[in-house]
């Protein structure tokens, strides 16, 4: 029974890798299309601030997808999740949020909360980076 569950888990993880790779490719195509549209609209080759923020947001979304793909791939190949990669994904995601954030539309408390999240993620990343990886890895043999 355990062997059957392990095989099922491996199949599901493999399918997740394939689907996530497809999502990353589609996001990359969307980024390229968005860039071409913004460059070709008058005035040519001039990007407005709103356009730049949208492009950077999608760009970081592609990076988040790549990092998630690396995480799922690592789990598929090694049967473990590395916390350093998880912190990296979270830092990229919060960076994306900050880049596309319009501060005048959010309360000061929300901005302070985002700052606290950043500090917590950086502290977690620092702890994971300075400690032995074997102390923090979640190991599950497939």
Overall description:
The protein is 80% helix and 3% strand. It has one domain. 5% of the residues are buried. Helix 1 (2-40) packs antiparallel against helix 2 (49-78), helix 2 runs antiparallel to helix 3 (83-100) and helix 3 runs antiparallel to helix 4 (108-130). It is built from five helices and two strands, in the order ααβαααβ. The longest helix is centred in the first third of the chain and has 39 residues, at 2-40. The radius of gyration is 19 Å and the shape is flat.
Please mark out the parts with pLDDT under 50 across 5 or more consecutive residues, or reply none: none
Strand order of the largest sheet: 1-2
Strand content: under 5%
Secondary-structure element series? HHEHHHE
Distance between the termini: 14 Å
Q: How many domains in all?
A: 1
The biggest sheet amounts to: 2 strands, antiparallel
Q: What Rg do the Cα atoms give? A: 19 Å
Structural class: mainly alpha
Number of helices: 5
Helix proportion range: over 70%
Secondary structure tally: strands: 2
The gross shape turns out to be: flat
């Amino acid at each position: 029974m355990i062997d059957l569950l392990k095989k099922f888990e491996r199949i599901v993880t493999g399918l997740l890798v394939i689907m996530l790779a497809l999502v990353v490719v589609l996001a990359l195509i969307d980024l390229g299309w968005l860039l071409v549209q913004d460059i070709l609209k008058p005035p040519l080759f001039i990007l407005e601030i709103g356009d730049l923020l949208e492009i950077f947001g999608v760009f970081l979304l592609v990076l988040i997808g790549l990092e998630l793909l690396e995480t799922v791939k690592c789990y598929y190949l090694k049967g473990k999740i590395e916390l350093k990669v998880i912190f990296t994904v979270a830092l990229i995601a919060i960076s994306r949020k900050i880049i596309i954030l319009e501060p005048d539309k959010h309360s000061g408390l929300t901005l302070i909360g985002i700052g606290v999240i950043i500090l917590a993620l950086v502290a977690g990343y620092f702890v994971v980076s300075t400690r032995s990886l074997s102390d923090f890895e979640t190991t599950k043999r497939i």
